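General statements about sequence and structure are easier to judge against a single worked case. Part of our work consisted of pairing the sequence of a single chain with a tokenised description of its backbone. The amino acid sequence and the backbone structure tokens for this protein are reproduced below.

***
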Amino acid sequence: MHRHTFSAAVTVALVFLWASPLFGQNVDTTGYNVLFISVDDLNDWVGCFGGNPQAKTPNLDKFSAGGGMVMYDAHGAATVCNPSRSSLLLGAHCYKTGVYSNAHDLKKAPGAKDLITLPQFFSKHGYHTISRGKMFHGHKIKGKPGYDWGQEFFDEWIKPPRSIWPPKGAVPLSGVPYAPKGHKRDRAFDWGGVGDNDTTKTMDYQTAAWASEQLNARDFDGKPFFMAIGIYRPHLPWYVPQKYFDMYPLEEVKLPETLANDRDDIIQDNGKPIYFEDSWWKRMEKHKAHRQAVRAYLASITFADECVGVLLDGLAKSKYAANTIVMIWGDHGWHLGEKQKYSKTLLWQESCRVPLMVKVPGVTPTNKRCHGVVSLIDMYPTLVQLCGLPANPKNDGRSFAKLLHSPDMTWNEPILTTHNRGNHRIYDGRYSYITYNGGEELYDHRDDPMEWTNLARNPEYAAIKERLKARVPRTNSPEAPSNGGPGKGKKKTRSVR
């Protein structure tokens, strides 16, 4: 089939799919488009997800009210940007591709050489694929400045403008001193108002406004489109216009619930702790800046929500509103002090769980939470099935298309999340099993949603632990070569810390 031809066979497949018992209703989806929106480093602090009642996300909440189903128990396939995005966009787990960290190059990964990315798959089957903003992770391109965000995987790729950063002499803009050591890493963990309080000057707003204009001005040569848009905030540093900070008076900001001795039951056999102390957490603790950090993350979420709203409003005004599937997702979670940790990377709930929302016009109900257990790696086969395309047999994920019409059905097949080579988490909707360097953790989310009590050594849970442990990959592909970009380094990635 020619890559730019939306064939009659596909059209027939679409009609058959939506008239079949899978959805139990007739919906005309001929030539369905896809709007694929990532929001970098967004955790569940979204109103309709309930992760933090302080969060102001009116546009995402409106999207939920208008048929954007909340996939309440969604999780990433990895807990940092590159492996998470590579996994979901390839439809393959890290332990197969060898892309375990931000330093690993998807394009050089031996385990990925025979795989086709999600946008390439749609292009192959007659879609016009177009992208702006961060979708893939950055890789250096020889002879070209800067990092790409996957332009070679799309028919059309538009480079976004630069982010607004304060002058070097003005940092740390937050006023929280950098640590004496690790200054380079610390520089990323900063926040403050930028852009003369004008949202329209920001990279993310301009990306969203551009996408909105495309939806209202183009016919994409008569083809269905796959449009992938990346919103960068709330990725660090949290530099957004001051007005978003002003929405969260500092004295009113509440901190996440934590347990002072949370890590005491996570130890090696010799009694030593498994995890290093987090330097960012220590810095916030030293300068009593936890509240300021939480406020900055909330401000960045509200800013990102406004940018997503610009894009969703553009779709609503366009001729494509009634036949466009929308998926909005975060690539992994984010710690805001829980378990004495900031950032992502680890295999606890705060790093693994992600916001995922899906709207299929005429199918997904309004104001609905689905509690089925899904992984971001499932998005690839789900979109393929929704659009009536032939399945990709190399996809590791499981289509959750059935859930979109029957969100209350049981859906708790265990899913896998990986951090660095050989460290994995298996989660089935109630229990979370984590293994790293031979160490183990087990949590019961029904009784312990904060993961405060490690049950791995409790003999009463031995059978449950063994059941989940049997799902852990027995082999792990070698690490892919470095991409020379963000997170570059000659040393192999370390185990979980």
Remarks:
- The two ends are 48 Å apart (CA to CA).
- Residues 1-21, 489-497 have pLDDT under 50 and may be disordered.
- The chain has one domain: 8-469.
